[in-house]
Amino acid sequence: MNPLADALITPLASQNDTVLIRHDHKEISGIDLYLLTSQIANVLTDIGVEPGHRVAMQTEKTVEALALYLGCLRAGALFLPLNTAYTPAEMEYFIGNAEPTLVVCDPKSEAALSEFTKPRGIELLTLDSFGKGSLHDKTLKAGTTFTNVARAPDDLAAILYTSGTTGRSKGAMLSHENLLSNANSLCEAWHFSSDDTLLHSLPIFHVHGLFVAINVLMKAQGKIIFLPKFNVDQILEFLPKATSMMGVPTFYTRLLSEDRFTQNLTKHMRLFISGSAPLLSETHRTFELRTGHRILERYGMTETTMNTSNPYDGERRAGTVGLPLPRVEARITDEKTGETLKSNQTGILEVRGPNVFKGYWRMPEKTKNEFRNDGFFITGDIAQIDAEGYVTIVGRAKDLIISGGYNVYPKEIEIQIDVLEGVMESAVIGAPHPDFGEAVIAVVVCAKGKITTAEKIQSALKVNLANFKCPKAIFFLEGLPRNTMGKVQKNELRKQYEKTFHKI
User: Is residue 412 part of a domain?
Assistant: First the structure.
C-alpha cells in the first residue's frame, strides 16, 4: 500500500485520455505521465534514494518537475519543493537542515549549489524551464516499470518550509494521510469530478499549487491546463477550455483590469477559487458584476493544507473564509489562557483533523508548543467564528498591535480604509513609539487614476474607529510588497517604517 501513489498515480496507468495540457497546447495522456513517473522513480532508486530520504527541488514549473513530485511519492521519498526565488545562501540553510539525498535545480544554479552539496555527498541534478537537464538525460535511459514502494498513512510524503518571516524557516512534515484526506475533503466540498478541467497557473513549490490544485484534480481524475506562470494572455486563451480555476487575489484583479475578460468568456465556468491571501470585498463585488460568478474563498496554511471553505452550494460570504471542511474542527481560544471563546469573540484560531501536519522537522520543542494536549493545532491566526460557523480571519498574532495597552487588530482598520473613495488597498502595521509602545501606521495604495490624502483618511476613520485605533501616520505607495502567492509582506513594511517615531 502507498496511499497517495495508489490514489493519485496508479489510475493514470489505464488512462489514455489527456490529463495535462501544456502552454504550447501539447497534450499528455494519463499513461504517458504514468510512464514518466516510473522512469523518474527508477532514477531515484538508482542513485540511492531510499524510502524516507529527502529529495529537494528548486526548478521552474514543468511537466517533468511535476513528475518528479509524483516519482518521489512512488519511491517513498519525501518531496521538498523550494521557492525558485531563494538565493544560494538561503538554499544552503534548507539543504543543511533537510539533508536531502538529491537536489534538483536549474542549470543556472548548479555551480553555486554544488559548493555545498558536493562536500556533503549530495547528488545534484538539473532540470531547466524546458524540462531538459541531467535529470531528463537519466530519465531517458530508465525503465518504464516500477512497483510503488509501500508506505503507511502516517509515513511522511513531503516537507514544506514556512515563509520564515519571523525567523528561520521551519519544515512542516506532511504525511500521506494529511495530503490524501485533504484531497478527498476538497473533492467533496468543491464537487470536483472527471468532467473538470482546471486552469492551473500557480507555482508548484507551494501548498496551493501543488497539494491543493494538483492533488485534487488527480484524485478527481480530471484534466489540468498546466501553465508555467500567470500570464493574462494565456489565461484568456485557455479559459474557454476550462471549467474551474484556482488563483490568488492578484490573478483576479489583473483579469478584471482587462476589457477582454467578459461574462461571455466565463459563461461555461463552474468555479473560481481564491486563497493564499485575503480577497478584497471590492474584488468580490466587481468580479460578480463582471462575470456572474461569485469567487469561492477558502483558508489554509503550510502546516494543515486547507481548513475551511465557503460553501459550493450556499452563501459565499465576502470577508470570511467559510466553514470548516469535512472532518476538520475549528475553535477560537484566548491566547493567554487557552480557554475556548464564544461565537463572535476574537481570539486565536485552532484546528484539528486528519489534515494537520505531524510537526516541524527536527524541532520537537517547537512542535510541542504549537499543539494543545487534545490535539488542536494553534494556527497563530487571529479570528472569529460566528453563530453559523463562518470563520473570519482578523490577522496574524504576530501582526497584533498593542498601543497604549490596547489591542489593535489591523484587519479592522484595513476594512475601513479600503472602502474609502480613491483607495485600492491598504496594510496596517505597528511601529515602535516612545509613549504608546507601538503606534498604528497605515500604508495605502490609491486606486488607478485616483488620489486621496492622509487628512481625508484620518477624518473618515475617526467617525467609525476609537482614537487609539486610528493611524498615527499614513504613507502612500504605488503597490504593497507581496510574496509569490500574493500575501502582503508586512515584515518588510515594518522594517521600512520602524523608525517613523524614532525622533519623537
Answer: yes
Domain assignment present for 297? no
Kindly state the cell numbers that stand for 218: 488527480
Distance of CA 364 to the CA centre of its chain: 24
Q: Does residue 413 fall inside a structural domain?
A: yes
At 81, list the grid cell: 519543493
**Domain assignment present for 62:** yes
Cα dihedral 251, 485, 479, 249 sign: positive
Residue 499's contacts (CB-CB under 8 Å, 6 or more residues apart) are 431
Choose the final residue of a domain: 111, 136, 151.
151
Average pLDDT, the chain: 93
Domain boundary among 151, 166, 197: 151
Q: What is the CATH number of the domain that holds 457?
A: 3.30.300.30
**CA dihedral (363, 364, 366, 372) positive or negative:** positive
Whole domain around residue 58: which residue ranges?
3-151
The dihedral over CA atoms of 486, 310, 158, 61, expressed in degrees to the nearest 10, equals -40
Q: How confident is the model at residue 90 (pLDDT cuts 50, 70, 90)?
A: confident
pLDDT tens for residues 259-295?
Answer: 999 999 999 999 999 988 778 788 899 999 999 999 9
Q: What's the number of domains the chain is made of?
A: 2
Separation CA 183–CA 189 (nearest Å):
10
Q: Rounded to an integer, what distance in angstroms lies between the CA atom of residue 451 and that of residue 476?
A: 10
State which amino acid sits at residue 277. A
